[in-house]
Structure formats: structure tokens, C-alpha cells
Amino acid sequence: MIDHVPYNYPPDFEFECVSKFLYRWIKLGIKSRIRYLTIPLFFDAFGDSKGPRKMAAAEMLAELPYVDSLIIKPDVLPKSIALILPRIQGLSRLVLSSFSGFYVTIIRSCPSLRILEFSNFEELDLPLLHLIISDMKSPGNLLRELKVASKNLLQSDILSLKDAGLSLREVGWNEFDAKGRARGFTWKRY
Fold first, then answer.
1. Helix-strand-coil percent breakdown of the chain, rounded to 5?
2. 126 and 185, same domain (yes or no)
3. Residue 50 domain flag
4. Which domain holds residue 37?
5. Do 104 and 131 contact (CB within 8 A), yes or no?
6. Each residue's pLDDT tens digit, 45-69
7. Fewer CB under 10 Å: which end of the chain, C or N?
8. Cα distance between residue 159 and residue 157, in whole Å
9. Which domain of life is it from (predicted)?
10. How far apart are CA 15 and CA 74, in angstroms?
11. How many domains does the chain fold into?
């Protein structure tokens, strides 16, 4: 939605644009599906004077008729968004920047979530990855695909996931560089 904000704009400019968009969309009663919705920086409802307004804007996400993909820009998953994720209708793809603030319970509580993607993180949290993958194989879990992108992803990290004895098939990762680092990998459940 908003890729670049000029430096002289106030820091909450992105938030104001998104909250006004959500408000008008709901007020007009538009029933169309939203394919991609990007949640900008400065959306965390806790820690600043606009907390209640940001929480109200997050609540509006649950009132939208249908959202396919939700892309969250902040490095930490805002609590205001995490609390309403299970109520977002039709959410099939969730893209997060990093593992910070992520809880596996989000997967369990989002009924239509099929793809979970971590788009850019510096440090790989292997125990959390193992937990997510093992949770993917549990009965009733509808998550089908996990995508991870990182500059610091080592071949040994991927092999440790591959050797975890989980009933998942690895479908590919980007080629390794000379230091044995990959840019990302994808696991799919069949």
C-alpha cells in the first residue's frame, strides 16, 4: 500500500492512511475481497499516546469481509494485530518480518491460515522453527506451507530441520553461497 514515506512526513503518516482506508472500506459496506493488505510500521498499539486509536484500527481488520494475505512490516508483530488475527476472515497467508513477537498459538487459532512466511530475519530461531514444523503435522492444523528467508541461514540449519524426522517434504531452497549460507527455504505439507 505505502512503500515509501518522505522523511518530512510525521512518523504516524502510514498508520493514519491505513486506518482511514479501513474505516472508509467498512463504512461504505464494500464486500469485495482484499488480496493483499500491508500493515505499516508504527502500528503497535502499545507504548505511545495513540495506543487506543491503533487498537481500534486493528479491530477494524476483523470487520473486513475477506482478506487473503496480510503483510506485516514491523520487525515485531504488533500485539494489537496478533490479538485479532484469528478473527480476520479468509486469512490464508501471513507474512511476518521476523520471529519477534510470534507465537505458535497464532497458527492454531487462525482457522483458514495456509501459508506462513518469514520474509527477513537476521537470526534463525531453530527451536521455534522445529515447533512450527512439528505443529504443522498435527491433526486439524491446516497450515500447508512455511517459507523462511534469511541472510544468515546455514546449510547445517536446514539439514537439522530436514533430519528432524518430521512428515514434511522439503521442496526447495535458494542455492548456497561459498560460505554455505542460503537465502531461504520452503517446506510444504502434502
1. 30, 25, 45
2. yes
3. yes
4. 30-99
5. yes
6. 444 555 666 677 778 888 887 888 8
7. C
8. 5
9. Eukaryota
10. 12
11. 2
